[in-house]
Amino acid sequence: MVQLAERLPRDRFALEFILLSGRGPLADRAERSGVPVTVLHWRRGRSVTDRLPDLWRLVQMLRRGHYDIVDAWLFHAYAITSLTRPVTRIPVLIAGRRSLSHHKHRFGRAERLLDRIARRSVDAIVANSDAVRTEVARYEGIDPGRIRIIHNGVDIPAPLPPAARAALRAAWGVGPDDVLVGCVGNYKSGKGHEMLIRAIASALPTTPGLRLILVGEGPRRAELQRLVDELGIHDAVRLHGAEPDARDIIGAFDIVAQASESEGLPNAVLEAAAAGLAIVATDAGGTAEILDQGRTGILVPIDDETAMADAIGRLAADPDLRLELGERARSFVESAFGLDRFVAETASLYEELAATKGIR
Fold this sequence. Notes:
The chain is α/β, with parallel strands linked by helices. Helix content is about 45%, strand content about 15%. The protein has helices at about 1-5, 25-30, 50-65, 75-90, 110-120, 130-140, 160-170, 195-205, 220-230, 265-275, 305-315, 320-335, 340-355; strands at about 15-20, 35-40, 70-75, 90-95, 125, 145-150, 180-185, 210-215, 235-240, 255-260, 280, 300. The strands form three sheets. The protein has a six-stranded parallel sheet with strand order 9-8-7-10-11-12, sandwiched between helices. A four-stranded parallel sheet has the order 3-4-5-6, with helices on both faces. Strands 1-2 form a two-stranded parallel sheet. Helix 10 (about 265-275) packs across helix 12 (about 320-335). It starts with a helix and ends with a helix.
C-alpha cells in the first residue's frame, strides 16, 4: 500500500491513509512521502454496541474527507466501509482480496452478514492472483466481471554485499559450507512451519550441513520450539523472531522454503524471487503464478513433508541448480511483477471506476 502511495502520480491523485487500529512502522514512511495518516484506534474484542462510537468516528472521517474513492484492503476494512456507505455515500468503493476464502469458514453470524453486505455494495473487487479471483467467484457467488486481477508488485533489490552476508550467517551460527534454508512468515496456523521443520529433520541425515532459519513471530512460537527440541535438531533450526524488513536479510539464505497451506499471492515468495534465490514452495493459491515448476522454482504438494525434504535435499546438493533457478526467478518477476506495472494497473482502475460515477 505504501509503495503504491509513493508512486501514484500526485497530479492525478490526492491520497490519504485511514487506519482502523494503530500505527505500524510503515506509517512514518507514508507520512515522509507526503501522505497523511489518520488512526481511529479501534480495539479488538469489543461488542457491537461498544463499537458504535468507532463506527461513528469512521462515518465522520469519511464524510469530512469528501473522498471520491475508498480502496479498502482486506475484509474488515471493506466490510465496515460497506456497512457505512449508505450514510457516507462514498462514490467508489473497492474491496481488496489478497487471500483465499478459507478464513471465512470461521466467520460467525455477524461477520457472514457483513460479508454479504460488502459483496453487494462494492463497485469492484481487486484480487492479487488468478487463484484468488477463481475462488472468490466460485465459492462466494460473485460475478467474475466484478473482480479485477492486479498482481502484487515487487522491487528488484541490490545484492547483499558479501561481507554483510557472511556477518549475518556467522551471527546465526551458520558456517561458510553450510546450506541455509530460510522461511519468512509469522508463526501462526496455515503457514506450514511444522511440516517444514519435519522436512528438514528428514533431510538432515543425508545433508548434515543443512540449516533452517524461521523469520517471523506469532502465537505458535512455543509449539514450534517444542517440536524442534523433540526432534533433537535445535542445532540445525533457529527461530529468528520478528525482523523489521526481511528483505534486508534474505540475501544471506541459500534456499527459500515456503510451506503454506493457503496463499493469495505470497509476497515472501515474490521477494525471494526478486532477490534471485532458489525457492521451494507448496502449490498453494497463487504461488504457481510466480514459480514455473522446475524453471523458476520447485513446487511441492501442500502438506507433503517427503516432497519438501526431497526438493530441499536436491537443491542443497546442487549449487549450480540453485543459481540457475534463482536467476530465472529474478528475471521473471522483474518482467511480470514490476512495481510500475502494479501502479499503472491500479491507477487505471481508479480512473475507470471514477469515470463511471461522472468523476473526472
